[in-house]
Write a structure and sequence with these properties.
This protein is α/β, with parallel strands linked by helices. The protein has seven helices and ten strands. The chain has a five-stranded mixed β-sheet, sandwiched between helices. Strands 8-7-6-9-10 form a five-stranded mixed β-sheet.
């Protein structure tokens, strides 16, 4: 089995793949996994809760955007499973054209999304990752990675309003009851949640207008379950919650097949 770790700013995802099939997945708050004991406990919990008996780890892939946590977790995984993890970077040669001035700065999470979108969806595809930051990627099986957009994330918008003002509260991130609010919280929910939807719809439309023949729009990230249904009122998209995990698996397989 391949053990995949997606280490993000808000959450850490663990996944086990048997061949190409995702057989087990758990999500942890990144704030919970900051020390060696916490890392060990989370890995033990993950393996112990796997429904598959006699789990054998044949390889490990790590996609991380937190260098300090990568440095902590790699030796622990190496010691526990007696195999050297593959730390994914966008400079790995996996047969994907990356049109980025400095590919090393692209980010492992974005690289995984790009590779997975190219392999799974084949045609020209927009990926919208609603995570800590909001990221758009345009990929093509013939032209490779064409470029992207980075905007603030949903929580970042809400926290900015609260932190930069004296009276605005930190709101719950949920679907507004109506477009216009009748109290401060509902007004802010409309501005943040529907504002993110409007931003996403407009950017997706602009990408489609400029690059034409975009066949798919794929949504992923922690806020995708909330935002995808609202986005789909304007443009049809497919929610793929495991896109980055699948991308990490594909990258691992391609690196080890060369």
């Amino acid at each position: 089995m391949i053990f995949v770790l997606d280490i993000g700013n808000s959450t850490i995802k663990y996944a086990l793949f048997s061949a190409k099939v995702l057989v087990h997945k758990m999500v942890f708050d990144t704030s919970r996994i900051i020390s060696k004991p916490e890392v060990n406990n989370s890995i033990t919990e993950f393996i112990d809760t796997c429904a598959t008996n006699n789990v054998t780890i044949d390889g490990i892939a790590i996609a991380s955007v937190i260098p300090s946590l990568t440095k902590l977790i790699v030796p622990l995984l190496t010691k526990t499973f007696r195999t050297q993890p593959l730390v994914i970077t966008p400079t790995l040669n996996v047969g994907v054209i990356i049109k980025y001035n400095n590919p090393a700065l692209l980010g492992a999470d974005r690289f995984c999304n790009i590779v997975a979108a190219m392999v799974k969806y084949k045609q020209k595809t927009i990926v919208i990752d609603w995570g800590t930051a909001t990221k758009f990627e345009l990929v093509s099986t013939t032209q490779g990675y064409l470029g992207g957009i980075i905007a603030p994330g949903l929580a970042m918008m809400a926290e900015g309003l609260s932190e930069k003002t004296a009276l605005l509260p930190l709101i719950r991130l949920e679907k507004p009851r109506s477009l216009l609010g009748n109290d401060t919280e509902s007004c802010m929910q409309s501005g943040v949640v529907l504002g993110m939807v409007g931003l996403s719809v407009e950017l997706a439309r602009r990408i489609r207008m400029e690059y034409l023949t975009v066949n798919n729009i794929i949504t992923t990230g922690g806020y995708a379950p909330l935002l995808t249904p609202l986005f789909n009122k304007h443009i049809t998209a497919i929610h793929d919650p495991n896109l980055a995990l699948e991308g990490a698996r594909i990258i691992f397989e391609r690196v080890h097949s060369r």
